[in-house]
Amino acid sequence: MKKDKAEGGRMRAEVNKSFDSSLIPHPSSFVSKKRFGQHFLRDQNIIRKIIDGAGVSKDDIVLEIGPGFGDMTSLLSQKAERVMAVELDRELCSILSEKFSENNVEIINADALKFDIGGLYKRVGRKIKVVANLPYNISTPVLFRLLEGKEYISSMTLMFQKEVADRLVAKPCTKDYGILSVFAQLYTVPSLLFKVSPHAFTPPPKVDSAVVRLEMLAEPSVKTDNEELMLKVVKAAFGQRRKTLLNALSSGLSLLKNDVEAALKRAGIDGSRRGETLTLSEFSTLSNSVASF
């Protein structure tokens, strides 16, 4: 029995030693800032998997959002032609600027939610690959911001909280399917690459994470007469998930129920269904039908 316990302890020590050897040391004087949602990815093996999943090559200009101490930035700079790293924290920008003073890395002190990716595209003259461990507190708004500049991006390989990643790849009639699923799948082909344990970060988050690659589409996955209206219909349909389509669209689009009933009938969609049951094609058909009002 004692021998078994000793052996078990030795194996656990070996596992911990192996894991710790892959962690990157950070300045001990730096204190992470909760307001920035800082959870720094430290595991080199995970960083390599992210970059491999992104398919980064020497022909690529890479935009990294939230580089932290530059752990992923370092490996990206070895793989890509150039790395543009956007960091809001001025203290980190100072650390990064010193670290990468002679590398093919540009440190940009800016808010990712306001960053002009179209301006970057014009400056570099080609589409950009986005690779990032996104700050948790702004990951969804940043994704929507990036989708606004979809014509300037070739692909995005991003770290999210696991629950957000699940929504990106969710299918109709599942609990995770919603606005984020429709938006992502309208403009990209999302694929969940792998999960990441909290132990890969410092400080460790309280949730699991996952890496998703979103390959940008040349055209939306479904055609619609009015793309802006379709997105409004999607938002209205999911605005109050427990409501039927008839009630959700009536309130969400400020339309008379009789008009919504007529639009649903023309689209061949039962008004008693709920938004999470509709496919992208059905949302397109429905928005075309609603357009007459």
If helices are DSSP runs of H or I spanning 4 or more residues, what is the number of helices? 12
Large-scale geometry: elongated
Average pLDDT score: 88
Low-confidence stretches: 1-24
Over the alpha carbons, how many angstroms does the gyration radius reach?
Answer: 22 Å
Question: What separation lies between the terminal Cα atoms?
Answer: 78 Å
Decide which structural class fits the backbone.
alpha/beta
H-E order? HEHEHEHEHEHEHHEEEHHHH
**Percent of residues in helical segments?**
40-55%
Secondary structure: number of strands: 9
Percent of sequence in beta strands: 15-25%
Largest sheet: 7 strands, mixed
Spatial strand arrangement across the major sheet: 4-3-2-5-6-9-7
Summarize the structure.
By secondary structure, the chain is an alpha/beta fold. The protein is built from twelve helices and nine strands. Helix 2 (44-54) packs across helix 3 and helix 9 (227-239) packs across helix 12.
Q: What does this molecule look like?
A:
43% of the residues lie in helices and 18% in strands. It is α/β, with parallel strands linked by helices. The strands form 2 sheets. Strands 4-3-2-5-6-9-7 form a 7-stranded mixed beta sheet, sandwiched between helices. The protein has a two-stranded antiparallel sheet with strand order 1-8. Helix 2 packs across helix 3 (71-79), helix 9 (227-239) packs across helix 12 (280-290) and helix 11 (257-267) crosses helix 12. The model is unreliable at 1-24 (pLDDT under 50).
